[in-house]
Design goal:
Blueprint lengths: L10 H20 L7 E2 L1 H8 L3 H13 L4 E3 L3 E3 L5 H25 L2 H16 L13 H16 L4 H21 L8 H13 L3 H18 L3 H9 L1
Antiparallel strand pairs: 1-3, 2-3
Helix pairs in contact: 1-3, 2-3, 4-7, 4-9, 5-6, 5-8, 6-7, 8-9
Length: 234
């Protein structure tokens, strides 16, 4: 009697797919592709020396992170750059993240408090800009920034919400890097310190308000002429 076997991808294929995924993700975040550029599986397969199946698997992961779009009859593309797209991402973040922060304040334990303090300490001690990295925030600061914001929300204990945050954050980071813009008079240190203080004082109302304002200031600095200039450079 014949039986249909359901086999998972081989370890070798999974490793190749991971490598292609990391290559694509890094290339998009570095700006090697312009907004709206096509991501052609055939070209990527040839460039990376892998099969189309491996490339498509990696592309699906990149789409899942919000770093690429899959369009009917057009295949895969880098997201187009527009104020409306960035504003929609920020609207979603302003809607979801303050709720998650309230949940974290209600549910977070002492270990969560310790992680928040450690993440804020790392962020406060990491230079925002580094020699040789141009107008972009340094890679080290960007990672410390992500970890601080995610740690604030991890106390909610809801993995679905945290996965949603991860996707929104990645899309936001892409827009931020494309803008290559410094808001020189912005008090990042003060804003993040206020977030830490209100969260750890268990003042949910104020913490949620501070976070919403923090996100509002961010979008104000990255819309309008800033993104239009980035689109022209592309």
């Amino acid at each position: 009697m014949n039986q249909t076997a359901h086999t998972s991808p081989s370890p070798g294929k999974r490793m190749l797919s991971e490598q292609v995924y990391e290559h694509l993700r890094d290339a998009i975040m570095r700006g090697d592709y312009s907004p709206g550029d096509a991501l052609k599986p055939q070209d990527l397969a040839k460039e990376q020396g892998v099969s189309l199946a491996v490339v498509r698997e990696a592309l699906v992961r990149v789409v899942g992170e919000g770093l690429a779009d899959r369009l009917p009859n057009r295949g895969f593309t880098v997201p187009a750059l527009s104020d409306s797209r960035w504003q929609e991402i920020t609207e979603a973040r302003r809607t979801i993240e303050p709720v998650m922060l309230r949940m974290s304040i209600e549910r977070g334990d002492l270990d969560w408090e310790a992680r928040v303090r450690a993440a804020h300490h790392r962020l406060a001690r990491t230079p925002a800009y580094a020699t040789g990295e141009g107008e972009h925030y340094s890679d080290a600061w960007s990672e410390a920034h992500r970890v601080f914001h995610r740690t604030l929300l991890e106390g909610c204990g809801n993995h679905v919400l945290l996965e949603t945050f991860d996707r929104m954050w990645t899309a936001s980071e892409l827009a931020r890097r494309w803008s290559a813009h410094r808001v020189r008079d912005r008090d990042h240190v003060g804003e993040h310190r206020r977030l830490e203080e209100t969260a750890l004082s268990r003042d949910a109302d104020t913490a949620a308000e501070v976070l919403a304002q923090h996100l509002t200031v961010t979008v104000a600095g990255l819309t309008g002429s800033t993104l239009l200039q980035a689109a022209k450079r592309a």
